[in-house]
Write a structure and sequence with these properties.
Blueprint lengths: L1 H25 L41 E3 L9 H5 L5 E7 L5 E2 L5 E2 L1 E9 L8 H5 L5 E3 L14 E3 L5 H23 L1
Antiparallel strand pairs: 1-6, 2-5, 3-4, 5-7
Length: about 190
């Protein structure tokens, strides 16, 4: 029994070494640059497979999901993306407006100001759920993937373009509107 196990172990090790040697000898031939979009790209198993990054980069498939991007002008601050996010990496704070403040590119009415719209890409799991639920399609996944940093706070992207003065002004407008509405109810 022990001899049989030893023979099986040596046979398995020899197969593994043979496979490694075969790949090592195949790597001496240079692998031709092939576009990832072409059929048969992943069938090519011979040659050097290491990409010499950053001089050489792997082509990105069209359906790749990487860096999130928000077109804040098209955002209606509905908060659906933050609710759909399974890891809560999207942080949104909205300020109500008494009037219509504009329209998105698809014609949706904007009634909320984005006081804060932050995405923490260090927590993002790149699932794409936030892009699916967005009614105005303002949040998309780009093909940018090289966001290397040693500081995690550099991976928090802020998309709101409101200054502190604008935030205070919009909050004051809403408070005034609410006070006028309450006064009208009482009289």
């Amino acid at each position: 029994m022990m001899i049989k196990t030893t023979i099986q172990g040596l046979t398995s090790a020899a197969k593994g070494l043979f496979k490694t040697l075969k790949h090592l000898l195949g790597a001496t031939q240079s692998r031709k640059s092939v576009d990832i979009k072409k059929a048969g790209y992943f069938d090519n198993q011979q040659g050097i497979t290491t990409v010499q990054y950053p001089k050489e980069k792997m082509p990105i498939p069209e359906v790749a999901r990487y860096q999130l991007q928000v077109d804040i002008d098209d955002c209606i601050v509905c908060d659906l993306c933050a609710k759909a996010c399974p890891v809560d990496c999207i942080d949104i704070t909205a300020i109500r407006s008494p009037d219509v403040i504009g329209y998105t590119s698809d014609g949706s009415t904007k009634r909320l100001y984005p006081e804060k719209f932050d995405i923490d890409m260090s927590q993002c799991m790149y699932c794409g759920l936030c892009t699916v639920v967005c009614p105005t399609e303002c949040i998309t996944m780009t093909d940018k993937y090289d966001k290397s940093t040693t500081n995690l706070s550099d991976l928090i992207y802020s998309f709101s373009n409101m200054t502190e003065e604008e935030v205070q002004l919009r909050k004051a407008e809403w408070t005034k509107y609410q006070a006028e509405k309450e006064a009208a109810k009482k009289s």
